[in-house]
Structures are given as structure tokens and as C-alpha cells.
Write a structure and sequence with these properties.
It is built from 15 helices and no strands. The chain is mostly helical and 357 residues long. The chain has a domain of 200 residues. The chain is globular.
């Protein structure tokens, strides 16, 4: 019981401390522009959790961040830093759109959703498999290769959309594909009238299932144990019989597949077509989500909800304070988590020594 309490404290205290620090920093910033922190925070809550539309937008943004946060989290668990979520997310969305365009309109909804989702996962996985192999076979650092692949993937997708002369793929004079014929996910507004107009859709459930599957993989499978062992000490894991190179390839593939899964939120659930640039920012914000969420699926889910609230809230408070203030608060949260985690561990160790003395 004491070990469980210590683990919970180690997981939850750093984000809580970070949130408190961010609130204090936010107060100072708000006061510096001549506004009342109480009024600004009240407006932020009213524009997000205070109405069905705003809450729906929060859930929509949370969905993508869960996938990109899990993407980074899986890599970090294996000792790898996958920062290619931006390109992997876009690749998954594009593949889902192509699958939805290729399927006939008469395709049963469950089959269409399954095929399009599988296309997104496979496309994302391939974009992660490449840097995984480069790391395992040639020692190429994944930070460099995933950064370069971001540019390559996004440039290729931009070329594919902008160079197409309309026809079956692109709507003329736009940078998006034609609407998918199969695989569309219903929006929450179609099921719950209060959410009408918001972009929230059933891909949120798929993202939550992916988070649950990631937890099961991490802590209930031999492959997940090997992955965590390699992340903690690759030399010791290799001495114990673990194929470190194979774990790296598998981790990068799964990591990118989760990012690719996030593409269905926009393509299948919201717009029902692929649009160039839809993934801008979400891949890199996933890094913050994973760090604040302490690389646990539950933490990633909560951090995604927090950052999505800030993102949507920035639009709500723009009438009183600059929207860039929200970006500053996000940075403060990340720095506070990085600074508070070692301090929390130090305090917990000291309390444990006092209790056992």
C-alpha cells in the first residue's frame, strides 16, 4: 500500500505543482495587461466546460492529442524520442482519406470505418518503421531522422494535393481531397443535440481504446516489459537476452501508428476529407502532453484534456487578453513539470527515510 501511495504521489504531484505554478504565472501575466485573473479564468471556463459546444471542441482537440501524446510516450518508454508525430499524423489522415475515397458508397459503415482506420494506422506505422530501422541497423539518431521525415512527408503530401488536377482526388482550386464515400464517423452532435455544431466525434472512443491498449501493452505483456527494460537500460536488457534493435523498431512503429490513428479525428470524424496542413502543431504539442502526463496512458489522457482546454480557452479569452498568453502558460506548465519532478522524488525519499528511521 505504501509503495502504491508513493507511486501515485510521484505520478500526480508534479502535474499538480505545475498547474499551480502556471496559475500563479497566469495571474501575473493577466495583471500585467490590466485585466482581472478571476474574470479571465471564468471566461475561459465558460468558453470550454461551461457550454456544450465549447466542451465538444475541447473533446475534439483532446482526441488528437491523446494519439500524439501516446506516440511520444511509447517512444520515450523505449528510450527513443519520436518527434515525427506531425508527419505521422498527416500520413495517417491522408491514408484514411484515400481509403474512404476508394471504397464504394455502399460499403457498410462498420467495415468502412475499420478499413479507413486500419489504413491510417498502417501508414503511420510505416513512417515510424523507417527511422526505427535506421536507428537499429545504422545507429542513425531518431531525433534527426524523424525531424527530416516530417519535412519529407509533409512536402510529399502537399505535392500530392497541389499537383493533382482535380479529378477523383482533389476538389479543384483547393488543397483538400474530395469527401470520402465510406468510413465517416458520426459526430456527437448527431447523437446528442446539445453538441450540435462542435467537431467532437466518435474517434474519441477509438483514441480511449488505444490508450487502454497501450496501458495493457506496457504493463501486462512480455513485449511491453522488454520495451520498458530497453528504455531504462538497453545494455542490461541486451545482456538479459532482449533484442534491443528489434524493440527499437517495434517501438517506433507502434509509436508512429498511434500518431497516424489521430488522423481519423479530422478526416473521418470532422471534415470527412484530408486537408493540407490540418496536423499543424498537434504533433509537437504531443511532446508536451507526454511529458506532463509522465508517459502513462492515464496521464496522457488527462494532460490532453488540460492542453485542449487551454487551446480552446485561448479563443474564448481573446477578447480580454492576447491568445499568445495561452502559449506562454503551456510553456510554463512544461518547465514546471520538468523542475518539480526531481524535487517531488527528493521529498518522497526523505519522507520515506524519516518514516523508516
Amino acid at each position: 500500500m505504501d509503495a502504491l501511495r508513493e507511486r501515485v504521489a510521484d505520478t500526480l504531484l508534479p502535474p499538480v505543482v505545475a498547474l499551480l505554478v502556471a496559475l500563479v504565472a497566469g495571474d501575473v501575466l493577466i495583471l500585467s495587461v490590466g485585466q482581472s485573473p478571476v474574470e479571465v479564468y471564468a471566461l475561459l471556463l465558460r468558453g470550454t466546460w461551461g457550454n456544450a459546444y465549447g466542451f465538444g471542441q475541447v473533446l475534439y482537440k483532446t482526441t488528437t492529442l491523446i494519439c500524439t501524446g501516446l506516440c511520444v510516450s511509447v517512444g520515450l518508454r523505449a528510450g527513443l524520442f519520436n518527434i515525427g508525430g506531425e508527419g505521422q499524423l498527416a500520413a495517417g489522415g491522408f491514408a484514411a482519406a484515400l481509403a474512404g475515397l476508394a471504397l464504394p458508397a455502399s460499403t457498410p459503415a462498420p467495415l468502412g470505418i475499420l478499413v479507413c482506420t486500419a489504413a491510417a494506422v498502417i501508414a503511420g506505422g510505416i513512417t515510424g518503421w523507417v527511422p526505427g530501422v535506421l536507428r537499429a541497423r545504422f545507429g542513425a539518431h531518431e531525433v534527426i531522422t524523424t525531424i527530416m521525415l516530417n519535412f519529407i512527408i509533409l512536402a510529399l503530401l502537399n505535392w500530392a494535393i497541389s499537383s493533382a488536377d482535380g479529378g477523383a482526388l482533389r476538389v479543384p482550386e483547393t488543397l483538400h481531397t474530395r469527401a470520402i464515400r465510406a468510413g465517416a464517423l458520426p459526430r456527437f452532435g448527431d447523437l446528442i443535440p446539445a453538441f450540435h455544431g462542435s467537431a467532437a466525434n466518435l474517434s474519441l472512443l477509438i483514441a480511449l481504446i488505444a490508450a487502454a491498449a497501450a496501458w495493457w501493452y506496457f504493463f501486462r505483456t512480455r513485449a511491453g516489459y522488454d520495451l520498458r527494460a530497453v528504455g531504462l537500460q538497453p545494455d542490461a536488457a541486451e545482456y538479459g537476452g532482449v533484442n534491443v534493435g528489434a524493440v527499437w523498431v517495434r517501438a517506433m512503429t507502434i509509436s508512429a501508428a498511434l500518431a497516424g490513428l489521430g488522423g481519423i479525428n479530422f478526416v473521418l470524424g470532422y471534415k470527412h476529407y484530408y486537408e493540407d496542413g490540418f496536423a499543424t502543431g498537434a504533433g509537437f504539442l504531443g511532446i508536451a502532453v507526454a511529458l506532463v502526463g509522465r508517459n502513462t496512458p492515464l496521464g496522457v489522457g488527462l494532460a490532453s484534456l488540460f492542453f485542449a482546454t487551454l487551446s480552446q480557452g485561448g479563443l474564448a479569452i481573446n477578447a480580454l487578453v492576447p491568445k499568445t498568453m495561452v502559449d506562454v502558460l503551456q510553456g510554463v506548465v512544461i518547465l514546471a513539470v520538468a523542475a518539480s519532478a526531481p524535487e517531488v522524488r527528493r521529498v518522497l525519499r526523505r519522507r520515506k527515510r524519516i518514516a523508516t528511521a
